[in-house]
TrEMBL record:
Biased composition (Low complexity): 277-287
Segments passing through the bilayer: none
Keyword RNA-binding applies: no
Domain Fibronectin type-III: 202-289
Keywords from the UniProt entry: Coiled coil
Coiled coil: 590-617
Pfam families documented for this protein: DUF4082
Protein name: Fibronectin type-III domain-containing protein
Region listing for Disordered, in residue ranges: 277-296
SMART domains reported in the protein's UniProt record: FN3
Length: 704
């Protein structure tokens, strides 16, 4: 299935990616040649439906002088046929060189070299292009929106740096000046830097200061170089211990022994690898105090985790009191067959938030498969909690009117219109339970999250700890559910009640930014802003309105948005209320074996495995720190490493963002990107990463 945009760009297709090849050339390659995108880059669209003749190009710069030796382009299919010609242009449109591709392969990267290399000037914009006479080109829509692509001295510019990038012109060839939605057409250059044999000067005025226990702060003046300094190397007692970027003038050395003298020098290095002379030697002695465990930053209010659950007798002897346990709940689980419970467990579910179709064997099956039930008696065994009626806030409303005993039907309250007896129901359920030590769970919907006043919300969430002395109940956990992707009415309601622009309603960020934020504000009212109980958000796994769909990427983004906004549990809603070919009705997504839900089932299993592996981290208190104002982030520290969880805020959908680290963390090193099989080298206390869609998120581990 493909999604088409104008100019014939397909932004997404379910096709495989061909193996990467380089076409042969009559001129042998040079070992030191550099390209922007390398040999592993491949487009999301292999063959665009556009078959018109078109010149496609990319704007780029080099930070050092050198020579462009040739042009590359990516061929996604044999349909991109005909005679291809590669060209190099000045920013003003003067063609500097061209060459015709030959000996092309059927797919993959194709390469041609100019008869003579073309010298280019550092920090100057040029355009590389190729003619696709039969269209059918490869592309990735939106690639240059807010992000560039850099390899060594070469950079394909982000749109906005020098006009829009991803340029084209229709016809039989010519200078490409038009652009469409920042599209990457997979055009590249081969570049040979000019040899540089001059080393930078020595950095000046190095100063070392014992700034805090276990650390020494270094500062120095810039070195000079004929091309430019790319890095500074830090030496401690003669051994190189770190490097920072060429724009950095300081470094904080951490993890040092107390009451110890350390001596430092700094050297500059340029792009060619030339290393200059050492700076002056600077020394300092660390204090006699040991550094604290963790970071010296303000903390986010903390509720939940093993210490909280230990208050409830039914939790004794269960994994809830272990740091390695993080609640992963399934709302609406069917417990009438063991196979269903086993399937839920195989997907990583460890908690049932509401159950259906139970029988005499259900409790034993839950215990056998290690699933804890918040919809039980709350007296122990697998039934560690008890659940109040779902969404009482919506079908009973806020207030103290009498209750008829009916649930979510006619004649609920007296009077029945308007309904204002929800608080009466909570009190009645609490009295009927007759167990003040029970872990009580409930889920709220649009009433408490959207329609109620602030005071009503505070009464409903906080009960006996809230502003109304008539309230007797106390919840142990509250979740909320509003389905931003699949609710048929939310598009009209969210702009009115939440002030969200209509085009920003169906985004993953709203699950955390709106729902978790509102829950935490309500729970912390009258308590110095500190939430009283664990809170969470239920994420839907399927459509709620006719034909509505939430895909696996959106599920994952919504889940991580709740966690980044301090959810103390992860929750899924099992049901699908729509009935369409794309999203057929089902009462239990994780147990529905149809192909429509396969990707969602597999993604849920992946998410839950990652959360389980991070339970010890997620069960620690977060720190207050702003890495980038355009990102929602969560910072934690555990077992000698910092963990950063991040995704874009609602109003941003894609881009490259720079993270500024707190000074307590090393200024340079390597960051592991969890679950993505990659790492990021960083320096100067900063690193950069890309977020390609509104649901994109990343988790980072930074060794201290």
């Amino acid at each position: 299935m493909c999604l088409f945009l104008s100019l014939g760009i397909i932004v997404g297709c379910t096709q495989g990616t061909p193996a990467v090849h380089e076409s042969r050339s009559t001129q042998s390659g040079l070992a030191s040649e550099i390209s922007i995108f390398g040999t592993s880059a491949s487009p999301t669209t292999l063959e665009d439906s556009d078959t018109a003749s078109v010149e496609l190009g990319v704007k780029f710069r080099s930070s050092v002088p050198g020579a462009v030796t040739g042009i590359r382009f990516y061929k996604g299919s044999a349909a991109n046929a005909g005679t291809h010609v590669g060209s190099l242009w000045t920013r003003a449109g003067q063609r500097l060189a061209s060459a015709t591709f030959s000996n092309e392969t059927a797919t993959g990267w194709q390469t041609v070299r100019f008869a003579s290399p073309v010298s280019i000037t550092a920090n100057t914009t040029y355009v590389a292009s190729y003619l696709a006479p039969r269209g059918s080109y490869s592309a990735t829509g939106g690639y240059f929106a807010g992000q560039d692509a850099t390899n060594g001295p070469l950079t394909a510019l982000a749109s906005g740096v020098d006009g829009q990038n991803g340029v084209y012109v229709y016809g039989s060839g010519g200078f490409p000046t038009q652009s469409y939605q920042n599209t990457h057409y997979f055009v590249d250059v081969l570049f040979l830097p000019t040899p540089d044999t001059s080393a930078p000067s020595a950095p000046g005025s190095l100063v070392a200061t014992a700034s805090a226990p276990g650390s020494i702060q270094l500062t120095w003046d810039a070195a000079t170089d004929d091309v430019g300094v790319t890095a500074y190397l830090i030496f401690r007692d003669g051994d190189e211990v770190a490097s920072v970027s060429g724009t950095t003038r300081g470094y904080r050395d951490l993890g040092l022994a107390a009451s110890t003298l350390y001596r430092y020098t700094v050297k500059a290095r340029d792009f060619a690898g030339n290393t200059g002379a050492a700076s002056n030697t600077a020394s300092a002695t660390t204090s006699d105090q040991q550094p604290p465990d963790g970071l010296n930053l303000p903390r986010v209010p903390w509720e939940g985790g093993p210490a909280f659950y230990a208050r409830f007798p039914a939790m004794a002897g269960t994994p809830w009191l272990s740091e390695d346990f993080f609640p992963i709940g399934y709302w609406g689980a069917y417990t009438d067959e063991e196979r269903r419970i086993a399937t839920d467990k195989a997907h990583g579910i460890n908690t049932f938030l509401e159950t259906y179709a139970g029988n005499d064997s259900s409790a034993g099956w839950m215990r056998q498969h290690g699933i804890w039930n918040l919809a039980g008696s709350g007296l122990g065994g697998e039934a560690v909690g008890t659940t109040f009626y779902d969404e009482t806030d919506m079908w009973a409303g806020p207030g103290w009117d009498p209750w008829t005993g009916n649930v979510a039907t006619y004649d609920v309250c007296i009077p029945d219109d308007p309904r204002r007896c929800g608080f009466t129901i909570y009190n009645a359920l609490y009295q009927e339970l007759n167990n003040p030590n029970a872990f009580i769970y409930t889920n709220v919907g649009k009433g408490a999250l959207m329609w109620w006043s602030d005071e009503q919300r505070e009464i409903g969430i906080n009960g006996a700890d809230g502003p109304d002395p008539r309230a007797n109940w106390r919840f142990g956990m509250v979740t909320g559910d509003i389905y931003f992707y699949t609710d048929g009415n939310i598009g009209g309601e969210a702009p009115n009640w939440f002030g969200i622009p209509a085009n920003e309603v169906r985004r993953a960020a709203n699950y955390g930014e709106i729902l978790m934020t509102n829950l935490r504000i309500a729970s912390g009212a009258g308590n110095n802003g500190e939430p009283r109980i664990p809170l969470g958000v239920i994420v839907e796994l399927g459509g709620q309105a006719q034909g509505s769909v939430i895909n696996a990427n959106q599920v994952e983004g919504a889940v991580w948005s709740t966690l980044i906004h301090e959810a103390r549990m992860l929750g899924y809603f099992s049901h699908v209320f729509s009935d369409s070919t794309a999203n057929p009705f089902t009462t239990d997504v994780l147990n529905d074996s149809r192909a429509e839900y396969q990707e969602t089932r597999e993604r849920v299993k992946k998410i839950n495995a990652e959360v389980t592996a991070l339970a010890r981290v997620l069960n620690t208190q977060s720190y207050v720190w702003q890495f980038n104002p355009s990102l929602s982030t969560m910072l934690k520290y555990r077992d000698g490493a910092a963990y950063v969880f991040a995704m874009q805020k609602r109003q941003f959908t894609s881009g490259t963002y720079t993270f500024t680290l707190p000074a307590e963390l090393p200024a340079s090193g390597t960051i592991e990107v969890l679950g993505e099989n990659r790492s990021i080298s960083y320096s100067g206390g900063r690193f950069t990463d890309s977020f390609t869609a509104e649901y994109s998120h990343h988790s980072y581990r930074i060794p201290d």
